[in-house]
Amino acid sequence: MLKFIKGHMESIIGIEIYPLISLIIFFTFFVALFWWVFTAKKEYINTVSNLPLDH
Description:
Cytochrome C oxidase subunit IV, transmembrane helix, mainly alpha, membrane
């Protein structure tokens, strides 16, 4: 089954760009997430973390 899929994918022109695009999207998302986590204000994090406890 894997040989069939691999053989079929190799016949598509330009298919080699899709893994690169997905890697760039993945890397960009996690860099942005880490940047947001390290620059978030502590009072905002405390407010959001206490939301489930506030009835």
